[in-house]
Amino acid sequence: MIEFRHMQKAFGPSVVLKDINATVNEGDCIAVIGPSGAGKSTLLRCLNLLDPPTGGQIIVDGQDITAPGCDVSKIRQKMGMVFQSYNLFGHMTVIENIMYAPVKLLGLSRQEAYDRGVELLQRVGLADRTLRYPDSLSGGQKQRVAIARTLAMDPEIILLDEPTSALDPTMVGEVEAVIEDLARSGKTMMIVTHEMSLAERVSNRVFYMDEGIIYEEGPTAKIFKNPEKESTRRFFRQMRVLEFHIDSQNFDFVGANSEIDQYCFKNHISPRMANRISSVIEELCVQMLLPALKNPRIDVCVEYSKTEDHTYVTVKYPDDLRPEDCGDEISYKLLSANAESIDHTYDESDGSTVSISIVND
Ligand code: ADP
Ligand code: MG
To answer: What is the pTM of this model?
Structure first.
């Protein structure tokens, strides 16, 4: 039904979508997930030509909608968009909001548009708000009206961009229920959301976006339970990553420490955990490894998982030296005190890897 072929989108010099290749089949409900800034909104806006792509193609029902001379308004009619911020007309009643486009663009009579509007309001549970103004509705109710308004145009596909993220938590449920009902009815949908439970419940497929591409895609259960790519896994575990490289005996540990502090502050990591992280790195890298290694090349990767409140520090160096054999007993004791576990592995091609796990207590 929809096929993205090497689609690109740049804003001036900044290439936001690099190479999008994907297919959306009729009846699919695609959850588009990924870190913020990954280009999820841009993908939806490219599809309905609010932001025309700057390269590649989008084929909709066999037609290249990026080709010159395409009837843009016809294409937009195929795609209903639901935004985070409802975008209802404040000077019109609920039913007028819903009747407006069908009368104007589809040529429905006012009676037809009205009847259909009432039916749709029943579907989203708001039949008793027909003649109210948007002002008098709660956020959840406004978003349900916005969904009814989108359905009134009978689009082939509905694009929802974080439809619940502006809502008070108490209202998320009522909007999610409407979205679930739509997905169950077999409507083709693409939904950008940070609500992982919603994504898991409504979608049959997931596009995980990162670095300007669809980094990984697949059936929902597979992506949620067993993603293949490391970046997808990190996203689900809400991993935050900090990396640095030590390449001389004069390594600036004060500078590294201030980077660790900033990383911890930004990710709401407790001061106790922050202290453990910095102490583990200082004892292992600065006190033990640096003086003992002939070739001072150490890669350090700190990964904090918010869902687990757990930090993993991975230290790699091209030597078979084991931390406990560095001959620095005090440092090894201090390291052990802050680590839940310390594992060392060595292999010819990769050198040593020390994996340290740190728990919060
Ligand atoms: P997401 O929805 O995944 O958070 P967006 O699609 O909103 O990400 O944005 C992706 C990137 O594109 C961001 O770095 C953003 O700053 C940039 N971007 C989005 N819209 C524009 C625009 N109109 N002009 C310039 N840059 C933009
Ligand atoms: Mg967005």
So the answer is: 0.77
